[in-house]
Amino acid sequence: MTPMLVQHHPHPASAPPVADGPGRARDWAEIQERMLVPLYEAVYQHLEVGTRTRLLGLGCGSGLALLMAAARGAQVTGVDTDHARMDLARERLLPESGTGGGHRHGGTKLLYGRPAEAGDATRPAYNLVTAFQPVGGCGPEEDEEADGLAAALAAAAPMAERGSAVVLTGWGPPERCATSAVLRVAGRLTERLRTATSWRPALRDDLEEVAGRAGLRPDGSGRVACPFGYADMGSAVRGLMSTGLFDAAVAASDQATVEKEVIEALHPHVRADGTVWMANVFRYLVARTP
């Protein structure tokens, strides 16, 4: 299930995680994260995010979705367990705050840790919770990862007003996601090397199943075109590798082997001018807190 392309998550014991340092976090922030702007914008427009919105972003990463909500007038709080990405979120949203554990400025609050860290009795309850890490993608560990996201959503729900919107996102049908061909590299390598993780296409009810595990009530959904466009092959590889999806394959083999296979999978998507372009569709589900 949250890597999929744009996801960073715990790795199974059989596949030691690849270091996610400042360089890779910046590749995510500067190259890959912007690919999901149409998804963020569609969700915010659908839910009429504005000055009355009190948003809690789970797994907020480097903060682009929070920045877009704040630009609409929302009061935003973000929480994440990735230090490098949180440092970049602070550069974007709290440039004068430094890089400590949690900071607040002008209604914006960024916290390192789990959803429980976002509880604050001094502030009004949230009325929107977002989990923008795409659900759907990692085979045998899918249930474990889905349970983790469901637990995070269940922990966040009591911090929100009754009936508040909770947004989950996921990959669309593989036949409408050109990037699926590249993601299959992770599946082929991990299956060949008999590691615990292999990519699989998103399933139709992935989002509903996670919402159900969290005790949330589905209340509508939508689909959004999110093409992945890169200036050149190098940018494409850096962006895709920053997602975390290929970490198990790198840990089981080596970075050069994985990058070589990713490049081969990207060749059909290279245009005459050297840019790389892949059409994709993402899905979002709006659920409601009890």
Features of this protein?
10 helices; 10 strands; eight-stranded mixed β-sheet; globular; single chain; two-stranded antiparallel sheet; alpha/beta; 290 residues
Which series of helices and strands comes N to C? HHEHEHEEEHEHHEEHHHEE
List unreliable stretches of 5+ residues: 1-19
Largest sheet: 8 strands, mixed
Large-scale geometry:
globular
| Number of E-type strands | 10
Helicity, as a percent range: 25-40%
- Can you list the strand order of the major beta sheet? 3-4-2-1-5-6-10-7
Per DSSP, the total helix count is: 10
Proportion of residues in β-strands: 15-25%
Specify the structural class.
alpha/beta
Average pLDDT value? Answer: 86
Describe the fold and architecture.
- With 290 residues, this protein is an alpha/beta fold.
- 36% of the residues lie in helices and 22% in strands.
- It has ten helices and ten strands.
- The protein has helices spanning 22-32, 37-46, 64-71, 83-93, 142-156, 180-192, 206-213, 233-241, 247-252, 255-266; strands spanning 54-58, 75-80, 102-105, 108-112, 126-135, 160-171, 217-225, 228-230, 276-278, 281-288.
- Strands 3-4-2-1-5-6-10-7 form an eight-stranded mixed sheet, sandwiched between helices. A two-stranded antiparallel ribbon has the order 8-9.
- Strand 3 and strand 4 (108-112) form a beta hairpin.
- Helix 1 (22-32) packs across helix 8.
- The two termini are 24 Å apart.
- Mean pLDDT is 86; it is low at 1-19.
Secondary-structure blueprint of this entry?
Blueprint: H1 22-32, H2 37-46, E1 54-58, H3 64-71, E2 75-80, H4 83-93, E3 102-105, E4 108-112, E5 126-135, H5 142-156, E6 160-171, H6 180-192, H7 206-213, E7 217-225, E8 228-230, H8 233-241, H9 247-252, H10 255-266, E9 276-278, E10 281-288
